[in-house]
């Protein structure tokens, strides 16, 4: 389908870089837990502790790494962080105790957080402002395609169940980030911005942008909902078969791959982003209500409710993604994209770290009441984002000129 392909040139090259490492990530996601328990020999509780600490560290360093991308140039920074991620993944091949696992996990989370911010800054320098949300939609579709391919590879390793199969998957993941670094080198360099000694890490003092980030973090609770909340709900509270967990993941991944670009077309400014976020909130309330109905004492009734809720969930997810992308760029001062994207990205880390605890308490502990409370919380945050974004837009400053592509190459030029 032609609309799934990004524009030739920088956007397509960015998508290729995304595809390369997302294939490795997909394989990592489906095999990592068993690898760390069966091969590394760690207890599940220690794995959870180590990953929580690692992502907490990653969320803290995301902002300064984003600032480095602004000051040193986002392409070079992204390449170095992709290489650092490859080193972190490769180190998992040899660690066999908790201390080394924790060190490798911290390096992995730090490099991943910084890479996300540097990539956003790179995209901002290479893609015209009015095309950024569409470009990110293409990247999200590419991400989901890569995750699906990687998950299939991981499934083969799980079927084999051997140490060699697990090691091969981690080697593939490390190689995918090496390939990502090579692809990023094909992009034009974006000129760094001049440092300002009086505006170091200004995002930490930008209260309106902080409010937007916090409200968006509430909406990001949908991320652990698919990976943890729903699986627990299905197995603990419904009559649905366990294989439905995998089917719903495929449904979500496929829908985002096919429809994210189309969904993002209607979002082109702060007002349309706020409208998309409100619609996302309404859909999330309906999603939670339908999921709550899946607790009926009927196998097919539960399956029907879970499939219907998953359709609503992916529609809400795509609207939220498009709206939040637009706000994260439009509310960041030119020349500080990496720093601001690094801060905005901490919402993902917080949702992944605290979300599982919250969702487990709400859904497994409270049942239907928990679903309704979750839906109300997301709805309130989605409606609060509009006023918060308008306030942030009024106070937005542009301390630096917009970053230019180095060596006279136009933004968006073909590579």
Overall pLDDT confidence: 86
Using the coordinates above, name the CATH class of the largest domain. Mainly Alpha
Multimeric organization: single chain
Query: What's the number of structural domains?
Result: 2
Compressed to H and E, one letter per element, the order equals HHHHHHHHHHHHHH
Shape designation: globular
- The CATH topology name of the largest domain reads Growth Hormone, Chain: A
Q: Find the structural class using helix and strand composition.
A: mainly alpha
**Name of the CATH superfamily of the largest domain:** MFS general substrate transporter like domains
| Helix segment tally | 14
The value of Rg in angstroms is 21 Å
Main beta sheet strand tally, sense and closure: none
For the record, the CATH architecture of the largest domain stands as Up-down Bundle
Can you count the beta strands?
0
